[in-house]
## 1
Amino acid sequence: MDWVIEARGLTKTYKMGEIEVEALRDVSFQIERGEILAIMGPSGSGKSTLMNTLGCLDRPTSGDYLLDSEAVSNMNDDQLASIRNRKVGFVFQSFNLLPRMTAIGNVELPLRYAGLTEDRRERAIQALEAVGLKDRMTHRPYELSGGQQQRVAIARAIVPNPSIIMADEPTGNLDSKVGKDIMSLLLNLNRERGTTLIIVTHDPVIAEQTQRIIRLRDGYLESNSQEKKVKAKQ
Amino acid sequence: MTFTQSLLEALESLSGNKLRSGLTVLGIVIGVAAVIAMLAVGRGAEESITGSISSIGTNLLFVFSGDAGGPPGRNGGSGNNDRPLTLADAKAIADPFAAPSVQSVAPALQGNGTVTFAGENSSTTIQGVTPEYASVRNLEVAEGEFLNEEQLLGRMSVVVLGPETADNLFGRHEGVVGETIRIEGQPFRVIGVLVAKGGGAFGSEDNSVYIPFTTAQARLTRRGARDEVDIIFVQAASAENVLQASEEIANILRQRHRTPIGDDDFTIFTQQDFLSTFETITGVLTIFLGGIAGISLLVGGIGIMNIMLVSVTERTREIGLRKALGARKRDILLQFLTESSLLSLIGGVIGVIFGWLIGLIVGQIAAASDTNFTPVVGADAILLSTSFSALIGLFFGIYPASRAANLEPVEALRYE
């Protein structure tokens, strides 16, 4: 199997003053390259922690995490920054665009941190084209609608050709029609580019559109509906 | 992230908040403007004073009676036991074998008196001098001639006027040769008028009249019989010889006055002494004013640090996002350091412009009030203050920038 993500016994413990909080307890699963997957769970179930860990924003306290066969668990801060830059594209609920920069400037940002200078602009234009916003290149975020801003954010996520896209409630700040468009854009990009898509969401309607749902409760992996979906496919 | 990119981004971010950036750099602007104006005015004053010191003559030494540098109480100041300088002393100093470093010697009698012409009164300095005086003191004659040897030997009643005195008496300083004026009631024929030298550091030399030494001795002072002189001006052969000339003169005078070494009854002052005294004063002033300007720069730097800390807090989410997109610690560090040093560099440049304007205005005021004084803004002052202000920004940016760089991406992203 070509696993893009392998998680083995992930545990994450936070210290809140005197008390230790276990946000993740012995979570193990694999994700196949090109898969579309939803992470669900109520607040406090550890789903944000899992997303941060899978997105290489944070290291697990114990357990192994392999992204594209690279062991992330023992990396230092700069190595984490580098692997985020190359392998992970983030899409946030609140878009998180830099307000002073134009759309294309925002899309170029990850390439800048990759040290790319030559074809940076062309690649950013291609990414904007892929999300259908080529004609809004020089607009600043406040000149764009919510849906358009999220499209720019998606272009920023796909521009380094990452291995996975982490989308955290990508439609949470959008009305349902625009949300639908954004979802179908994400699914299309997955189909065309084969980039693994991981969506963290509360919304069962969104989760329904994925191939598999990972449910967390109290830091444990409650259910992993992989087998059922795979069987259904067959 | 290359340097030019972070420079552009910093510029973008600073111009995104113009009012705040402007207020932040105000401290640096004021500090640098103070430094530049202070240096410009100081240097202008220095040049003007150095100019007037060198205008009193070249390689000049002054010999007075009395020991200015001696131990107090014994022979200090103009003690009563001091033997006055005499014409014979001046002749001895002029001896080319005893004092080879001396080029020429000009003894002088000085006193204040009233000169009159056709009912116009003017009080001036009356100088009894020898013909050498003109060359020793760099005096130039605008009209007529300076005193000559014949007039000296003949104790003639002739006078050379300073231009200001001529103006006071005649209302002009041209076409007055041949007129007769009265000095202390006695008639003198005007044989020359000097070129104006401007107000010097030692009183105006333009308001003086010069008469032959012997005439002054015989007719204007009561000391004629004793051959006394007030001051002996000595010109050394060259600038390198000034110190040696001073030694030679001291030896001659010690011998003639029979004084032990260390108990001199005369004082030798060189132009260099004036200059170094003056340089000590300006040096102290420069350090003092520089300290004040430095404090202002320090306060400005703290202001920058303060605003940078606020800015880091405000932009926590942005920092988190940049980190999520792959910014390393040093990328964030560079971004904020560039911003703070660019901020204070801009403040420095504005400060230079302001300081230069202040210098210009001071120069205009000086020119309007007829003072010979031009503030000078040197390239070194500009370079020094701009680079120093950039360094201040860099230094005071380190703490806020490292705070930004060390933010945890997860927490920074969650920050509201």
## 2
Amino acid sequence: MRIQRILAIVKKEAKKTVRDPAVLFMVFLFPVAFMLAFGAFFGGGGGEQPVYEVGVVNMDKGDAAQTLLTMLSKTGLLSPRVYDDNNTAQADLSQGKVKAVIIIPSDFSLSLASYRAAPGEPGRWSNTTIALYLDKGSLIAIQAVPPMLQQALAAVAGLESQAPLSPLRVEVASLVEVKTLSVFEFMAPGMFTFASIYILMMVAQAFIQDRENGMMKRIRTTSITSFEFMMGQVFSYMLIALVQAALVFATVYLLGFRPNVDLGTHLFAFTILLVFSLSNVGFGLIAATLAKSPGAATGFSFLFLLPQLFLGTFVGMSLSQTAQIACRFVPSYYVTDSLVSLFLRGASILSPAILLDLAVASMFSVAVLIAGIFLYAKYFRI
Amino acid sequence: MVEPGILIERLVKKYEDVTAVDGLSLRVARGELFGLLGPNGAGKTTTINILCGLVKPTSGIVSVYGFDVQAELCKVKQFIGVCTQETAVYDYLTGLENVELFGSLYAMRGDVLKARRKALLEKMGLTKDAERRVGKYSGGMKRRLSLILALVHDPQVVFLDEPTVGMDPQSRRAVWDFIRGLKAEGKTVILTTHYMEEAEELCDRVGIIDHGKLITLGAPGELISDSGVGSLEELFIKLTGRRIREEA
């Protein structure tokens, strides 16, 4: 294997990306422009009513806590999952397994009893605080869980509505600073994935163009091996994905997306996007295998692009739970999920959910890349 | 005994029910300028593609400088330079960058590549335009650049598939001089063309193929005189009953 040959291919592709207006637009400008427009106009809201799991750490042994759990279930939107300890609940929250964690204090029943004994005498109440931790990566968690919890508490206390005055106080105690995120900020992690998907169209068109104008044939007459050629191509597109991710990050940063995470987390996010670029090369090669012309390549690219777009980027964040099952079959879902966990939920790069996302995305990407190379080589030789 | 530059024995290539090359046997000496002539679809390009390892033959043996093309393609590739029928150059690169790219694909040393590209660009009259993007070149300039790409690594065997197609007479003459220069350097050149005057002008020997079969072989002058015709074009008509190029 000669590095010189691989670098020559990388250099050529880099020049093409910068100099070909169509490629420049498709890979860099279009995703950014689309992202800006979509970010500005797109809102949440799926079709059917989803149910969100919330973790509950019940430190109270009284009946009132059980009643609260029942009331939470009765909201129809929340499904309580009881944890024995706060640490496990917090770990699941940071990995996106639950949308919120509610801590029922040990004096919850006692406090409620003091209120029932003297509802009109606040001085005799035993006040207590229900701590609420929210998933910052979930719009529903921030907007819907606090009022629903208040509603459930009011029901437990026997009040008509959220009590303006009661011994039960809800304190939002999120993992990171409590701040209502804009829709754009919620979508930002998925936008990285969204931008990266367009590389598959570039790959498909590049291979078809080189095939049509005889360049592929010509290159095959030189000393470069198939392995060196594919390595050069893959490295090129990884490099393009890296530059693209940096550009998209700069754009969303300028637009106000400032995740409160360290440099390592940023680097990890870029690594996941690099891994994802392998699947885009693979899908691009499959599209190039199926298509006979650059125009057809665009059409076939959409076959792979659209499912990933709708099921695995910011678009998929507001899909119904049924639709979200389908999301598990596209690699972009795992990339977006890990980015949401990292940037919005504040999950550690070593948390099981992140590592699982990386593992699945890697396996998916390598499998698609191998399939793409195999199919293309079978029908057209590289 | 010195191995021939190119050896083709009983070569057959079939595409489903079409036989593109039908039992072709040829021997081209090292340093020879050999013309492979025939109309479109005669099997010229398929033969060249097989010699370059681009297409697998159905049966038969092909070797370049003693190396079997099927079994030792990596070695064969070091000896050969191919100027394909398509003007295959990267439009978004400059002429210089195209040459550098192909030099790198042959893993040429930097100083050698630099000297070689300078010489070739000068010879083909592209020095002045070397820094321009190829997309802005004329058709003739692209063909000349395409020739440079085939020769950048100084190959011993050069396959020129219709190298002057679409060129104006002046450019064609310049390319002819260049091809003569290759022969003078001792390179083995296989030229496919359907310009009969080109073959007469340049080739030591020609082989005329039709329907994948070799129908005659020899030095152009001898073939013409032995057949009692005035040109290779007339010889072709005499042998096949039709013109080598259908008029548009």
